[in-house]
C-alpha cells in the first residue's frame, strides 16, 4: 500500500483528515483561543507512508548537499545544543579576535508551521531542491485537500479545510517547513554576515566596533533593514521600541500588559532607571569606561546615606 502510493504519486484523501484536540498550554487556565494548543492525531497508515517519504526526501537533500547549512533542526548530528554552541562560539571569536561587540536579535515567527503557502513550497521543492516527477506529484497530492475535525469532550466539529500549513503531528511536516524556510538565509546574507536557526526560531547577529556612536547606528540600521524591509513585518503588538526622541534615552511603554511586578521590571522600570543615570554614563561609548562609571555611581548611591 505504501509503495503504491509513492510510485503512483497519489496520497489517498481518506488519510488526509486529522482529529484535533485542544489542550491548555502550560500555566494557562482561561478558556481563550491563545491559551490552547492544538494536538493533532493522524491515521497510523498515513504516518507510515509519510515516514517512508520523509526518509527518502531527507536522503536526497543530504546527498545533494542542499540542506540549509545554518539550520540545526530535523537533521542528524544537530540539535538545540549545537545551534547554541555555534552562536556562542561566533560571538566569542568576534570578541577575542577583533575586540568587537555583537548585536543579537531573536526572531520568533508566529504560527510558522500553520501559514506555509503550498504553492510557494512546491515551487521551492522543485527549483531549489531538485525534486521532480512522481516524487513531486506525491508531495502535491500530500499537501492538497487536507482537513481537520476538532474534538472537545464527546463532540466533534464539521470537517474544516486546511489550505495552508504543513500537517501538525506528521513525520514529513517539519522537513517540509525546513525546505520552505530555507529562503530566509538567502535574504539575510544580503544584509548580515551571520544567522542561525532551529526550525522557526532564528537568530540574527552582527559584529561591530562600539568605539563610536556612528558604528552603533550603522549596525542598528543594517539589522532593521534586514528585518523590516526584506525579511518580515514586525508586529507592533508583540514588540516595543525602547528608543525615544533622544537617542540617549529609553522610552517606557505606555501600555501595561504584564500582571506582576516581576514581569514589569524590564519592560517599565528598566527604561526609567536608565533615564535617571547621569548623562556622562549614558553617553559613554567605551564599554569598559561605561562599566567603571556605572559601578562607581551605583556604589555612591548605595552608601550615600549610610
From TrEMBL:
SUPFAM superfamilies: DNA/RNA polymerases (SSF56672). Pfam families: RVT_1. It comes from the Eukaryota. This is Uncharacterized protein.
